[in-house]
Design a protein that fits this description.
- Helices cover about 40% and strands about 5% of the residues.
- With about 240 residues, it is mainly alpha-helical.
- The chain has one domain (about 5-20, about 40-55, about 65-240): Tetracycline Repressor, domain 2 (Orthogonal Bundle), CATH 1.10.357.40.
- Strand 4 (about 155) and strand 5 (about 160) form a beta hairpin.
- Helix 2 runs parallel beside helix 5.
- The longest helix is centred in the C-terminal third of the chain and has 22 residues, at about 220-240.
């Protein structure tokens, strides 16, 4: 296991600790803080084994742009982070678990479950309880099966979506699910909420390279920017209602 993998493993273990021992959220009517950002968010990382897809923390601009890097505490905002949440009555171990499990059969009558020559090593429920590279790996296995079946769709609550195809029944519907899941993650994990608000006015950017054709659901940094704005607006409204 190289240094990068060891660091990511440490990040995942830390994420578990955050999820298991959440801090209480700050009062909604607390005054707007003057942000004092940790220098560690931009601390240069020298790693000759860093994968080609990674954007390192030093690619940001201190006080202006921050990379949501798995190399530091901001990794809790990654889809990979083990931050349990519930959505529509189902509990997921991470956003990655939700994302990848949608590629799996929903039941024995699902055509993906009955297609000849296709084997599923895990169930949909099992993948929902995965995080990090394990969840990502389960998704790669599912993608290989999808290629064998000649399909480009996944499902959520029985609804099919070609998640890379533009349109309200496809990419837009997929985005709506991922957005709601991201909100659930933030609101159900106080540490995530606290850290997101601590990014203040910083521009959030991903820790991995994204293609120009990436759909909105992939742009998690933009999703968190929107959620951050909503949380701050709620805090202002609650403060105004109390006369502060």
């Amino acid at each position: 296991m190289n240094a990068h993998r060891l660091l990511l493993a440490s990040f995942l273990l830390a994420g578990c600790a955050w999820a298991q021992q959440p801090d209480p959220p700050a009062p909604a009517d607390a005054p707007t803080p003057s942000y004092d950002y940790p220098a560690s968010w931009w601390e240069p990382v020298e790693d000759e084994d860093a994968p080609a897809w990674e954007v390192l923390p030093q690619a940001g601009t201190p006080g202006k742009v921050v990379i949501l890097s798995k190399r530091n505490e901001l990794g809790i905002l990654s889809n990979f982070a083990p931050t349990p949440f519930e959505l529509d009555g189902v509990r997921y171990a991470s956003l990655e678990g939700l994302w990848q499990c949608m590629k799996y059969p929903e039941g024995p009558d699902d055509p993906r479950a009955t297609h000849p020559g296709v084997t599923w090593e895990r169930s949909r429920a099992e993948v929902a309880q995965l995080a990090g590279f394990e969840a990502y790996g389960a998704g790669k296995q599912a993608k290989a099966n999808m290629k064998l079946m000649g399909i480009d769709w996944l499902t959520y609550q029985g609804k099919r979506m070609r998640y890379k195809v533009a349109g309200p029944d496809d990419a837009d519907a997929h985005y709506a699910i991922i957005y709601r899941a991201s909100v659930a993650k933030v609101r159900q994990n106080p540490k995530v909420r606290e850290l997101l608000l601590a990014t203040g006015d910083l521009e959030l950017r991903p820790d991995h390279k994204q293609g120009a054709d990436a759909t909105a659901a992939y742009r998690y940094f933009e999703i968190y920017t929107k959620i951050r704005a909503e949380l701050r607006a709620e805090a202002r409204a609650e403060g105004a209602a109390k006369g502060d």
